[in-house]
Amino acid sequence: MSRFALVIAAAVIVILALTFLLPGGKVNVFKKEQAGEFNVTIFHTRYEPNSISVNHGELVRLNVVTAKGTASYMHGITIDEYGISKLVTSETIPEAIEFVAEKKGTFQIYCGTCDQGPFGREHPDIRLTLTVN
Predict the structure, then answer these.
(1) Does one domain contain both 24 and 79?
(2) Domain check: are 40 and 1 in the same one?
(3) Which residues contact 68 (CB under 8 A, 6 or more apart)?
(4) DSSP 13-70
(5) Range of the domain at 102
(6) pTM
(7) CA gyration radius, the chain
(8) How many domains would you assign to the chain?
(9) Which of 58, 101, 54 is nearest to 79 (CA)?
(10) Which of left, alpha, beta for 45 (phi over 0: left; psi -120 to 50: alpha)?
(11) Fewer CB within 10 Å of terminal CB in the chain, N or C?
(12) What CATH number is associated with residue 92?
């Protein structure tokens, strides 16, 4: 087999593989992720907003601050299903938390670090609902 024929055969195999293996049979090799970006404030008794919704496969960015006067409360963001547990102690400079929403479903974001703060286990149970469609 000639070198030219081998190159053509390899190109055809690659095109067929991409056509059948990518979603919708489309060649999307260079598809850019779109970011779902949310500003989140942690108050003593709640997250604001208290729910967010993103699309499966989306890059999610949470810009998180703690409410004025609560920096020493040891607030944080914990998402068990995504292996995230981040302490947030700034009232002015957002802590950026990024992840790809690779698991579909409804998940609870909670403060996994609050019990380390001045209120200990008496800290209110605060939750934010994450829905991945």
Answers:
(1) no
(2) no
(3) 91
(4) HHHHHHHHHSGGG---TTPPPPEEEEEEEE-SS-EESSEEEE-TT-EEEEEEEEPTT-
(5) 35-132
(6) 0.69
(7) 22
(8) 2
(9) 101
(10) alpha
(11) N
(12) 2.60.40.420
